[in-house]
Design a protein that fits this description.
- The complex is a heterodimer of chains A (503) and B (500).
- Chain A is mostly helical and 503 residues long.
- Chain A is built from 20 helices and two strands.
- Chain A has a domain of 207 residues.
- In chain A, strands 1-2 form a two-stranded antiparallel ribbon.
- The two termini of chain A are 34 Å apart.
- Chain B is mostly helical.
- Chain B has a domain of 219 residues.
- Chain B starts with a strand and ends in a 5-residue tail after the last helix.
- In chain B, 62% of the residues are buried.
- Classes of the chains: A mainly alpha (503), B mainly alpha (500).
């Protein structure tokens, strides 16, 4: 009974409390957080069971209202969807544990709408993963996007402007996607993904189909912040409140990447497509630009969250490269990097959140070596996250790059291999810039002398409280554990995801 | 007789883990220095005992293997204590014991800051070094190689002076770039040959590849491991890294890190590509040229350095290439000579660094020009210095002579007169830059050192023990640790000759 309903269970676990929170919260504002946390915590076992069930027994399908597939709306849980759903549940649970104190410091009077929006966002994310219907995907995309605009706008003074830009560009993105879906619907007469995938080979030569595909990919590219459609991201992530950016940065763009995978590899057939429009190659080459541009811009940033945001642009480039190579190992690398990047970005944004709460800022220029004494654990998490971003063994980041490199060599894409490795070195530059500042008393810089003489910057700060530290450290530790267990993950979980068109 | 049989055993893993396990213990004992140093010494002793316990079975062609879990499809994280691995592990773990005692005297003598971080990083470095030694395949090797890079960084920047931080940046720039090149080369090897296992004599699959591919791959590997082996022009980080405290220079920049580099060179040439592939594509010529010019150039550069540690660093650059030269000769005696030089150079150079550190702690002098007459104040220290420097110049009966003798024999076996010339000239150059130091110390006079004596026993005893060891290894190369038997065994395995 439960098994048949699995695809819809996780989105509903988020959606129902999201609607309950405003109702209950009007009377008891304190109930918002426990409700939200309970919903997220409850989703983990459900998503975990879903993954277990799908890996053991194949995809599970559920038709809404009992209307059969091409007519009604189908929800399908396959290995890819169930894996990413579990990822969303786990990361959001850790971020929410961390968020309790951050939210009460940063915007205490907006707790009720905040937690309601968080759950709406997550419901949208998980709905996108679970749905088997192109138009329904658009609906969930809008749900998550609208919640996302709200979450950004709650932040500091600049955030309404950033949120407004995010809103305009996000709407353009979803609009493009909807337009593309319309083209596909007109030509194929169906919105069900599996159904469309069956029909497409017969109509693939029709220009409207290809135009529809390009519109969809452009729209989703905007949502994923695929270079050069990334320009909304740095502003939105750096001016959003810390707990929003810790949720949006690791997960938001990954959901976009998921939709790209779903459309390019499952609805369309990448092999047949490549002969008509070189869309995977275009994505790969744009990603090359993203890796280089994101890394260089990250190097130039003076604010930790902004640096991390540009670093996201680069890391999305890695995912795009893995997909664009269109080789099985590249695909494995991309999916593994979705997982690893979600965890390491979450860890790093939580560290940034700790800094914001404890110091009141996260300016790199104002950090100095006293931080490593005041917040030793947060800084240790920063180092582990940084090593993983650089891609040093035995952290998780090494292994996703390893598969990406193998994928590049498998397809003889030497430029991509070089860019993946060069990107790692650029990561070293911008992360060690921060690490040197945090750990070493002498560093070159305009304000160096001031800091060494005990200038501005509060000395008496202490380490972040346990509820903020624990999720940060769990994520950092996960980076080490996942590195060594990545082979197990690849064999058992990611291998079944590889689309038939790639093998 | 050269067939090795493997048996499952946890000893290689334990030998690696024992010092990593001491890191948290060192960390929680930060407030109690005596307890903290006890953990270091305990870990060092246990590590050496574990490695030593592997020796008898290796000599009987029995190889202990720890197969852990899969890290990439088809590739397990595997540790194998083969003769070469045990050879290197013995040197590194044995000298760690001496260095630990010496470190205690050094950091306390100078009242260094961040001592806990220092001892913890040291322990982690040794774990990584043994991982490099016991790695049974390229992926395992590179994982530990990179851990070693990162674990050494806190030691390089230990003094936290602008100079040390600049050295740290240089170090990371060189080694991390090298790591990236290695990863790319490794991925290409996996794709082309389907395996990453080290095998004595190399992988056969290389012989069927196109010459261009083999040459590019070899270049990438040589650059990747050559940075840590300080092959010119990839050596610049090593003199800069002398900003580190002297015990770090002694163990890491004369033994663990740089020897991991030359160990990597031998692993790659003899266990991955294999001598036959190398000679077929003329790649060993490249190694000989690089090594020969590095030996001569580094010796010349050593003359120009007035800073004692930097002179020692350039000397190290030159001597590391002796090992590369030995691997490039592809003859049994040459390889034996190169391998013996890993052990011999390690013991001799560690003595020299220990001496430099003792001088620094007691007299606060770093420059050679300021050492006039120090031999009278610190006779034991400078006596050991004289012995070790003569050894590096190749004077019998110190151990340096043994390795040079075999290198020379190997060169003659290969009919390479040029290599013999390089060896002889380099011996003279070595004498040329070491003898003036000894001369100043003993035969010149100055008032600088009237009030000082020998450094503390913590420092002098390890120093003399190491000097004695290098003398003993010169007289009896097979003493205690069977370095010579091991070297012979390795050469026999690799070159597939039964009796070199």
């Amino acid at each position: 009974m439960i098994e048949a309903n699995l695809p819809l269970l996780v989105p509903l676990t988020f959606l129902i409390p999201a609607l309950l929170i405003p109702l209950i919260g009007l009377r008891v504002p304190g109930a918002a957080y426990p409700l939200a946390l309970a919903a997220v915590a409850a989703s983990i076992p459900i998503a975990g069971f879903g993954l277990f069930r799908v890996i053991a027994g194949g995809p599970v399908s559920y038709t809404l209202g009992g209307w059969e597939a091409p007519i009604g709306i189908e929800f399908v849980l396959d290995p890819l969807a169930s894996f990413l759903t579990l990822l969303v549940s786990v990361v959001s649970c850790l971020v929410l544990i961390h968020a309790r104190h951050v939210v009460s410091v940063e915007h205490p009077d907006k707790r009720v709408p905040y937690y309601s929006l968080v759950l709406l966002l997550l419901a949208g994310f998980c709905g996108i993963m679970a749905t088997g219907d192109l138009f329904n995907l658009y609906v969930f995309l809008e749900i998550s996007s609208l919640a996302g605009y709200g979450l950004v706008a709650i932040g500091d003074k600049r955030s309404p402007v950033a949120a407004y830009r995010y809103l305009i560009l996000g709407s353009v993105g979803t609009g493009f996607y909807l337009l593309g879906t319309g083209f596909i619907y007109v030509m194929s007469g169906s919105l069900n993904m599996a159904d469309v995938a069956r029909i497409l080979p017969h109509i693939l030569d029709q220009p409207p189909v290809l135009a529809g595909l390009i519109l969809m990919v452009t729209g989703i590219g905007l949502k994923t912040a695929l270079f050069p459609l990334h320009f909304w991201l740095p502003d939105a992530y750096s001016s959003a409140p810390s707990s929003s950016s810790a949720l949006l940065a690791p997960l938001g763009t990954k959901v976009g990447a998921y939709v790209l995978i779903r459309i390019l590899f499952f609805v369309f057939d990448p092999g047949a497509l490549e002969q008509r429009v070189p869309i995977t190659s275009v994505i790969a080459w744009l990603s090359v630009g993203g890796v280089l541009y994101g890394s260089l811009m990250a190097l130039a940033q003076q604010e930790l969250k902004r640096m991390l945001a540009y670093s996201s642009v680069a890391q999305i480039g890695y995912i795009g490269l893995g997909l664009g190579m269109a080789t099985p190992l590249g695909f494995v690398g991309a999916v593994l990097h979705i997982l690893n990047h979600a965890l390491m970005k979450a860890a790093l944004f939580l560290v940034a959140g700790n800094l914001r709460v404890q110091l009141g800022h996260s300016d790199i220029a104002a950090m100095d070596h006293r931080l490593s004494r005041q917040m030793p654990w947060s800084m240790a998490a920063l180092v582990v996250g940084a090593l993983s971003m650089i891609g040093l063994p035995p952290t998780a980041g090494f292994f996703s790059k390893w598969y990406l490199v193998l994928g590049g060599i498998q397809g003889s894409h030497w430029v991509f291999v070089a860019v993946i490795l060069l990107g790692g070195l650029l990561n070293t530059l911008y992360f060690f810039r921060v690490i040197e500042r945090v750990y070493l008393p002498f560093w070159r810089g305009p304000s160096g002398r001031a800091a060494a003489n005990g200038g501005p910057g509060v000395v008496e700060n202490r380490e972040a409280r346990f509820s903020m530290l624990a999720p940060t450290l769990i994520l950092a530790a996960a980076l080490l554990v996942l590195g060594l267990t990545s082979s197990f993950l690849v064999n058992r979980v990611i291998h079944p995801m590889i689309p038939a068109g790639l093998l | 007789m050269n067939d090795l049989s493997t048996y499952p055993s946890a000893v290689p893993l334990l030998a690696i883990l024992v010092s990593a396990a001491s890191v948290p213990l060192i960390g929680i004992s930060a407030r109690r220095p005596n307890l903290r140093e006890f953990w270091t010494l305990l870990a060092a002793g246990a590590k050496f005992a574990l490695v030593l316990s592997l020796l008898p079975s290796v000599l009987a062609n029995q190889v202990a293997e720890t197969r852990l879990f899969q890290v990439s499809p088809g590739i397990d994280l595997t540790l194998r204590a083969d003769p070469f691995g045990v050879f290197f592990a013995l040197i590194a773990s044995g000298l760690w014991i001496l260095t630990s005692f010496y470190s205690i005297g050094y950091v306390r003598g100078l009242k260094e800051k961040h001592q806990t971080r220092y001892f913890a990083s040291f322990a982690l470095c040794l774990s990584a070094t043994l991982g490099v030694a016991f790695a049974a395949n390229l992926l395992t090797f590179i994982i530990f190689f990179e851990i070693l890079t990162i674990a050494t960084y806190p030691l390089v920047i230990h003094k936290q002076t602008p100079e040390a931080i600049a050295a740290g940046r240089k170090y990371l720039a060189f080694t991390l770039t090298a790591g990236v090149v290695l990863v790319a080369a490794m991925a290409a090897v996996l794709q082309l040959t389907g395996t990453l296992d080290f095998q004595p004599g190399g992988l056969r699959a290389f012989r069927d590849l196109s010459p261009v591919a083999v040459k590019i791959l070899f270049g990438m590997f040589l650059a990747g491991v050559g940075v840590k082996a300080a092959i010119m022009p990839l050596h610049a980080w090593l003199p800069a890294a002398m900003a580190a405290p002297t015990p770090v220079s002694a163990l890491l920049h004369a033994v663990a890190v740089v020897k991991s580099g030359v160990f990597g060179v031998v692993r790659v040439t003899d266990f991955l590509f294999g001598p036959e592939t190398l000679s077929r594509f003329g790649l060993n010529e490249v190694m000989l040229w690089l090594a020969g010019s590095t030996i001569l150039l580094a010796s010349c550069l050593a003359f120009a350095e007035d800073n004692l540690k930097r002179r020692l660093a350039y000397s190290t650059v030159g001597h590391l290439s002796y090992v590369v030269l030995g691997a490039g000769l592809l003859s049994p005696s040459g390889l034996i000579g190169g391998l013996m030089h890993i052990a011999n150079h390690a013991t001799m150079k560690i003595v020299l660094f220990f001496c430099a550190g003792a001088i620094y702690v007691n007299a606060h002098k770093e420059k050679i020009s300021e050492l006039d007459g120090i031999g009278r104040a610190m006779p034991w220290t400078m006596g050991a210095f004289a012995l070790a420097s003569l050894g590096l110049a190749g004077v019998p009966p110190v151990s340096g002579f043994v390795s040079k003798w075999y290198l020379g024999l190997g060169a003659l076996e290969g009919g390479s007169v040029a290599v013999v010339t390089v060896l002889l000239v380099s011996g003279l150059l070595n004498a040329g830059y070491f003898v003036p130091i000894v001369y100043r110390a003993f035969f010149k006079q100055s008032e600088n050192f009237n009030s000082i004596g020998e450094a503390s026993a913590w420092m002098v005893v390890p120093l003399i023990l190491a000097a004695g060891l290098s003398l003993l290894l010169g007289l009896m190369p097979d003493l205690f640790f069977h370095f010579f038997s091991l070297a012979k065994q390795i050469a026999a395995q690799v070159l597939e000759v039964s009796n070199p």
